[in-house]
Design brief:
Distance between the termini: 42 Å
Radius of gyration: 20 Å
Order of helices and strands: HHHHHHEHHHHEHEHEE
Largest sheet: 3 strands, antiparallel
Shape: elongated
Structural class: alpha+beta
Length: about 280
């Protein structure tokens, strides 16, 4: 399984196969992250190459295939350097939420961690994107109870397009039941490496999915090509699995099930949002 197998099964002539091979070499380079030999150096390319939910060649009722990505790139020039990475981002952005449904998530309260800036930016009108709007969102989270928060966020989206959420397999009502209150523990356990070592204000909340929203197992296309902290398989990847992180978890079994779904409003909040701090 992987890009190499996709090329072998393509039926392309020798010239196009060679062009695809050359493209793979360039993809490895433009998608590298961090120092060579580091835990994340090849992660993004590996995600695209090894995700078992992504087929090598087109299959009915399956996510778009690796071969279709290569064909799209080759038919577009192919692009090189920064243009190649930008094209890969666009391809992933257009193929989200294609993984298999996760019916277990539908029957559970799911949880999510937001960066305050993003929550304020995506939660509705122009005022929410301004300094005053951000302050209002912060005040609502800090002082309002669950019912007041539901009222405030009822007509405000909690994300722009796609939301990533986690749940707990044994506790249907409390997705964070194994986590304490600390920011560091959430960042590590949920694999939120983009926030590690930053001063980002992080907010935790949980909600029920409306009947019209179907949770899907994330694929490499959902993970995209921007950051390397996500890993295929439908579970969060604690940062400490990679030898870093601050939460003290050193076994990937500590990951929690995760799903992607359409953005929703805060009308179905199940627990009052709260700030995470150390």
């Amino acid at each position: 399984m992987g890009f190499r197998e996709a090329i072998d099964a393509s039926g392309w002539d020798a010239k196009r196969r060679q062009a695809a091979d050359d493209l793979l070499d360039e993809m490895r380079g433009v998608l590298s992250w961090g120092p060579p030999g580091g835990p994340y150096a090849s992660r993004i390319f590996h995600n695209l190459d090894a995700d078992e939910a992504v087929p090598d060649v087109p299959e009915a009722d399956s996510p778009v295939s690796r071969l279709e990505l290569l064909d799209d790139l080759l038919s577009s020039g192919p692009p090189h350097g920064d243009a190649l990475k930008l094209h890969l981002k666009g391809f992933c952005r257009h193929h989200k939420k294609e993984g298999p449904p996760d019916p277990l998530a539908k029957d559970r309260v799911v949880g999510r961690v937001w960066q305050l800036d993003a929550l304020a930016r995506h939660s509705g009108d122009d005022s929410a994107a301004s300094f005053g709007g951000k302050a209002l969102v912060r005040e609502t989270i800090e002082t309002a109870d669950l019912e007041a928060q539901r009222k405030f966020f009822t007509n405000r989206l909690l994300a722009q397009h796609v939301m990533w959420s986690n749940y707990h397999e044994a506790d249907a009502e409390h997705p964070f039941c194994e986590l304490g209150e600390s920011r560091a523990e959430h960042v590590d356990r949920l694999g939120l490496g983009q926030h590690e070592g930053t001063s980002d204000e992080l907010v935790r909340g949980s909600y029920r999915l409306p009947d019209s929203v179907e949770p899907k197992t994330p694929t490499a296309w959902d993970g995209g090509v921007r950051v390397p902290y996500w890993y295929p398989g439908g579970r969060t990847r604690p940062l400490s699995c990679d030898g870093g992180g601050t939460g003290g978890f050193n076994n990937r079994t500590y990951g929690l099930p995760e799903v992607v779904h359409d953005a929703i409003t805060g009308a179905t909040l199940a627990e009052a949002m709260k700030f995470l701090a150390d």
